[in-house]
Each structure stands twice: as structure tokens, then as C-alpha cells.
Fold each of these.
Amino acid sequence: MIVDPVSQEQLREWLSRINRRAKLHRQPRLVEWMRSKRPHAIRIVQQIRIDADRTTWNFNCHAYAFGLHTWEGFFPLVLSGADVWPDSRFVSELLVPVMQEKPREEATDGDIVVYSKGDASVVHSGRIQANLVVSKWGGYAHVWEHGLFELPRAFGSLDRYYAPPSRALVVDGFIHWAWQQIERRGDSSQGQVAETTR
């Protein structure tokens, strides 16, 4: 589907507003309503319910794209009081340098797409699936399938593609990252993290 740039930017601005301001239960209906105003391929993949078990929804786009949310140690670690999440710096500094980049036209199902703004730091991550992207639009947000730039404008306009790193590399990198963050802060949660990463 080709959408002219003005329409694409309007769509992205609407998505930004919906993602920031609309109540979660209203977002799918608003995105569907937008289809009559601006054609798009966006559809909900996982609708979260905050009253459900936190492990079904309390993770960000990076945890989703790199599969950390399915690692059994993820929630014990991030909910341990350490307040350590796989953020943009984690992806930019630990994962991107060791992943194999590929051209957009060679991206296939399961590959990672990372979005950035003007600099090289990653703002958003997703996975390629059937020539679309599947990504989670925040910690308290749904998982959506969407076209390459059919996502909130705040998630960046520069895209890069990578073969997915191994699960072991992602998990080990995240544990290392968690320890670095705790040591930087001089945090007292080191014991809790040690228990969750054994």
C-alpha cells in the first residue's frame, strides 16, 4: 500500500495522540475508525488488560521484539525492585553492535527492525512478520501489526534491519546490563538481582 507522505505523517501524528491519550480499551476502535480517513494495515495482535497478570502485558517494545518477555527470569528481575528495563540504551549499546545488519529488501520473517531519530540511538524495536512489523507501543500498550511507518511519530523515522540475535546473547546481555545499571546507581537491590539471575 502506497500512502503519500503528507497522509503518512498525519496518520503517524494521530497514532501518537491515540497511543498517548486514549484509554487502552478505546485504542483499537479509534485505530479502526482511522481506516476510513487514512488507509492503513494496522491491526491489533495482543490487546492488553491491565487487570490481568502483569506478565501478560508489563513489558516494553524491546522486551517484546527480542523475546525477553518470554524468558522465565525476566519478570523476577525487572519486578525485583531493581527497576531495570531493556531500554533504548540497552539495545543501542549492547545488541546493535553485535547483530548482523541487512538491507531492508532482504529482511524476512523474524528479523528485527529498529527505529531511531536523527542519531544512532534506538527508539523503538519490532519484528518483521509477513512484510509487516509487529511491535508493542509502550509498557502499558497493546501489540500491533503495522506497515513499516504506520506507528506513532515519536518512535522515529529511520529504520534498520538485523538478523535476530540468539536468545542466549540477549538474555546474557540483559543480565549484564541490569548489573551495570544497579552498580552505576549504587543500588541496594543487588542481592535481589543476584537471586533472580542464578
Amino acid sequence: MAKIMPSVNPEIMEKLIALGGKPFLKKMLHLFLENSTLKIQEASDGLRQNDYSLAERSFHSIISSAGNIGAERLMSLAREAELSTKKPDHNEVLDRLEKLKKEFELVKTSVEEIQKEYQL
């Protein structure tokens, strides 16, 4: 079993392996990193352009991606960020985006450790 990672639920890693082996885990982690990186950039772009709809869609996508790999805190922060776009206070949404970015970096580090541990 995966060692405890602060930002990723190790039980989800085991479930992904049970579903499709290491190749499936590798693919899911790759998709998470690729999609989340893109969606965080899109959210940033949306906020820079005052396009709260784009930011909302981007945050929503991060919720799903984070849930797929058990990044529960990231999922929660993305949900809060998504909700903050409904009654946009620009500074509040930016603050939530910054918190999300910091958590993403922690999750990314955990994913990289998992990739090494499982030799993916």
C-alpha cells in the first residue's frame, strides 16, 4: 500500500490499481496533472479577464479531477472557489484561486512521490 501522502488519499491509489493495474494508475495520475494544470491556468485567465463563467467551469473540472485521485482537500478548495464565482467578489475569488494553487503544488508533489514509489 502507498505510504501516507498528505494531499492524496492512499486508498484511492489502491482502488485505481485494483481497477486497472499500474498502467491505469499511471494514466489517471497523468490525466490529473495535465488537466488540473490546464484548468488552473484557465481559471487564472478567466479571472484576469473578469470571465467568471470560465473560472467557474475550470474550478468544476478540477473538482472532478481531484476526486478521481483522492485529492480531497484540493477538491474541497476547488468547490469553494467554484461557489465563490456565483457572487463574484474578485478579491475573494483570487484568494481562493491562490489557496487552490498552493494545494495543487502539494498534490503534485504527492503524485510525483507516488509515481516513484510505484515506478510509473
Amino acid sequence: MKRLRRSKPRALPAGRGFLGKQNFRTLHPRPQDRAFWVRGKDRPRICIPIVETSVKKAVEAIEQANSLADLIELRVDYLKEPKLAPLMKNRKKPLVITNRRKEEGGRYRGNEQERFRIFKEAVELGAEYVDVEIRSRRSLLRDLIANKMDTKLILSFHDFQKTPSQKELRGLCDRMSQLGADVVKIVTFATSWEDNLRVLSLIPFAKKKNQEIVAFCMGEKGKMSRVFSPWMGAAWTYTSLRRSRSAAPGQMTAWEMRNIWERLR
């Protein structure tokens, strides 16, 4: 009777790990892996920020992102000469128009009236979403809410230092909802693994109130919340087009995120 040999596990090509380096198949998907891109009604969604400084480069980046993203965020605060019309023309995916102020991790340094002029122009051009910080000047915010027509408002909050208590986060979520947010977006910085659980708990909290929400943590310890938030019911998560175009700490590439999701199935 022959003794069966234990087969050695097949070595994968040298590459990158789960949340760190990219592996071979992530970078070079096979034709038979096309089913990987077919996602159902409740599929998790990805939003890719465009963080280019010129309209020409932004148009090129949008073309590249179309095959990977479910939504595309146009970071107007990165543009040296903001021009929305050519960027929104012939778009293939829903656009989120963001003009992030310096205090919340953005690059915009002008006055608030001019910043909100961009949002108003986006509404007039028929943008699907505008992302506005809850700490914006209240009179300008209320005016935008009253005149947003068919554009959906993402009311956002960012904390780049810490994750507030669960009581504070839930109170914030309720205030944003009461102001008229179509989508509540709460993003904090994870200084511990437990911070992820606190922020992710906002998703069922909001869903019970029929409030659409995006919630996750930034930073190296916050990566797990970026991965799991859409599976828990968040509207989407954010990934970069490539590593050199990351818009926030801990942001993975779209390829990395899709690869992790596939492994979790």
C-alpha cells in the first residue's frame, strides 16, 4: 500500500500582503476572474477620489477610474483652476463634488462664499452629490440645502486626531440627519482597534432610522473599517486609483479593496 505524499502548498508569486503590499493576481487579473467584477444588488460600492491639480489630468484620471469605481469623487480643492463643466460632461459614473476646506484635510484656502459657489455650480450642472462639511458656515449650508434640487447632499464630519465617544458620534449623526443630509458621512482617526467598532456601530444605528450613511476610520488601524463598512450597510467606501493618489491616511487602492472582498466571500 503506497503512502500518500502530502502535497506542498503552491507558492504564490512574490507580491504583497492582505492590507499592505499588492499581490500578483490583484495587479494582473486573469480573464477567468471576470466574474469578480459582477456584483449584485446589495454589492459593496467603491468611490474613487480624483486628486489631480489640472483639468486635463483630472479628465484622464476619471477615464481610468470608470472601470473600477461605482462613484467618482471630484476633489475640486486640488485643482489650480477649477472648471466643473468639462469634468462633468459625458460622465459614466455618479459624481460627488467636494471642495474640502483646509481645516478638514482639504486644500481650499479661500473664503466660504467662493467655496459654496462651486457647490451651487455643481447643483446647476446636475451633479449627483455634493459633499459639504457640517462645520461649514450655517447660513450658506442652509441656503444650499434649500436649493439643491435633484442633487443629494452628503453632510460630512472628519476628525484627524481621534474617534469621539459613541454618545458623541450618535448625537452627531442625529444632528446631521435633522439638518437634511441625504447621506451622513462620519470619518474619524483610529488610535486603537476598538475605535473601528465604535464607528461601524453607527451604520446599524443610522439604518434603523432609514438614514443613508458612510462611516469608517482613517489611519493604519482604521483599514479594517474601510473594508467592512459597506458589507454592514454603508452606502460606499473610499479607495484611491493608485497609491500615489491616496486622499486620506489608510486609504487603500481599488485593486486592493476588491481583492480583499473577493477573499472574504
